[in-house]
From TrEMBL:
The lineage of its organism: unclassified sequences, metagenomes, ecological metagenomes. This is Diguanylate cyclase/phosphodiesterase (GGDEF & EAL domains) with PAS/PAC sensor(S). GO terms for molecular function: cyclic-guanylate-specific phosphodiesterase activity. It comes from hydrothermal vent metagenome. Residues 30-163 form the GGDEF domain. Signal peptide: none annotated.
Amino acid sequence: MKDPVTDLHGRQHFLRILESDVNEVATHQVSLALLLIDIRHFSRINLKHGYAAGDSALQTVAKVLEKVRREGDQIARIGDDQFALILQGVMNSGHAELAAHKIHRLMDVPVQLDHDTFRCPVNIGIALYPEHARGADALLAAADEAQHRARSSGQPCCVAKGHDEEEDSEHWDMEMALEDAIQKSEMRVYFQPKISLLTGKPVGAEALARWDNSFRGIVGPNEFIPIAESTGFIRPLTEWMLNSAMRLASEWEHPWGKQEVSVNVSPQILARADFVDTVLSARELWRSDNSLLCVEVLEQSFIEDISDVFEKLKQLRDAGVRISIDDFGTGYSSLSYFRDIPADELKIDRSFVAGLVKERDNANIVELIVDLAHRFKLSVVAEGVEDVQTLSALKKLQCDVAQGYFIAKPMPAEEYHRWLVNYRGINASGAISTSDAEKTSQQTTG
């Protein structure tokens, strides 16, 4: 299925081609290069200049890649603002860097749309097979890492680091250990509270997976989720998270009424035919008057089969499950998607929330998202709230719900239950108040 905006093949087709090309060059003992091209500040182009400008930026990248590629090379749009270029028969990384610099040079010109002019600079990550990776998945990961390095360093392009035997061994050990994590009862559910900015009351929590490994200690999701997705472990992990989070929530007793429990679902799980049944089975098994299930899906989930995704989300909403769009503002959603999406809330990405007080552009973006969401009767959650100034600014912008370390860090189920029981609201100075904190203060000053 081709992307309607750029007329390029999508991620799934690209992954099949990459796998085939890697196998082909391995047989003939030659090299290929993978370039990942990312539009810098793409979400800001959408929000500042409009979605037509976003489309124009995507089409500009596609045209540039068409100019650069040679016969036998492959290009695709594999993410919201991410493109891939497979270069065949490269001799070394220098050849790939020449192509990357040509792309960067061709993109470093103003884009004209009606009476508006804007720029869409790119960051490029480069990885070579077999120099930087031994397989298609590892090659993609290496190029992605290089691209992130280019973005964070402000460089036009970066080349992947060579694969390391020790790192490969550690990755393999983690794969093996992760497969047994549920059976060995090493997985944990942590909860991070969310509070209403209108009333100050808790309205729910996001359920987050942690791996308590006997050898490594507590392992965060940034380390093991990519491994789970690449090995297929993400399916049993998601089922375990849904059931465990709902079971724990059904046991809580507190004075705050029904609380929403949010569980993240990856695009890989959302694409499965049994996705709706999996979610509803967990909800029915642990149905409770204390809790309401919310499924969080990434905005990038809509890039592939939009009609299939919307149909599944609609089935869940019709069954009483709330739908939240996570990391909103970082991906690509056209206004038609926005109008039709079967969702209840948007979660503003923390990258916008973090600079809300000091950066006027971020404040404008948050204000736009809140206003747009409310016009379509969607509530808005701001994640990554780290201080009282940000909390106050979000209230002024009429954001509905806040989540972040200023309110509470993610915590084990027992600790979260105590937090719910002891929570007292937002005090006059804007700080979070709990009876535990009051006791501690009395003991300190007594």
